[in-house]
């Protein structure tokens, strides 16, 4: 009787493990956050990089459009997209918020002194925990929102020329 019980337990455990394995195989391994488009940003709260204040939702509602850009001084692709951000910084209908991601504050300031500062507001996410709330899993990434805090587009990777013209077209309509 005891042997039958042990065999039954082993069979059930093995069946469970194999079942979990096959279920996992059918799931997509691609992490896609494009599903955020059309959703509303909630609980927006980021600490300013150098001032003792917090940027919150009401700060975003003051503009028709806001581009939230996650970047770091140590990020090579961030340097590639920076000229586009400088150009976007000149747009009257767009506010740029830079989120410095897992970076040293002085390195970030040096980067902006060397390449230019396109941002209207500079915030920080030293541990990367706040960025998870935005669906960020790598940098650079950017999120374009309207004044109602609805996500219009999410840009994964550096802003390209095509992305730049999409943003311009969207904010000038």
Detailed description of the structure:
The protein has 173 residues and is of the alpha/beta class. It has one domain: Glutaredoxin (3-Layer(aba) Sandwich). It is 39% helix and 23% strand. The chain has 6 helices and 7 strands; from the N terminus they run H-E-E-H-E-H-E-H-E-H-E-E-H. The protein has a 7-stranded mixed beta sheet. Helix 4 links the parallel strand 4 and strand 5. The chain starts with a helix and ends with a helix. The model has no long low-confidence stretch (mean pLDDT 87).
Provide a concise account of the structure shown.
The chain is an alpha/beta fold and 173 residues long. Helix content is 39%, strand content 23%.
Computed Rg: 22 Å
Q: Please, what is the CATH homologous superfamily?
A: Glutaredoxin
For the record, the count of structural domains works out to 1
Q: Outline, from the CA principal axes?
A: elongated
Enumerate the spans where pLDDT stays under 50 for 5 or more consecutive residues: none
Second-tier CATH architecture: 3-Layer(aba) Sandwich
The number of distinct helices, counting runs of at least 4 residues, comes to 6
Order of helices and strands: HEEHEHEHEHEEH
**In percent, how helical is the residue content?**
25-40%
Main CATH class: Alpha Beta
Strand content: 15-25%
Number of strands: 7
Could you give the order of strands across the largest sheet? 2-1-5-4-3-6-7
Sketch the major β-sheet: 7 strands, mixed
Roughly how many Å apart are the termini? 77 Å
What's the average pLDDT? 87
CATH topology category name: Glutaredoxin
SS-based class: alpha/beta
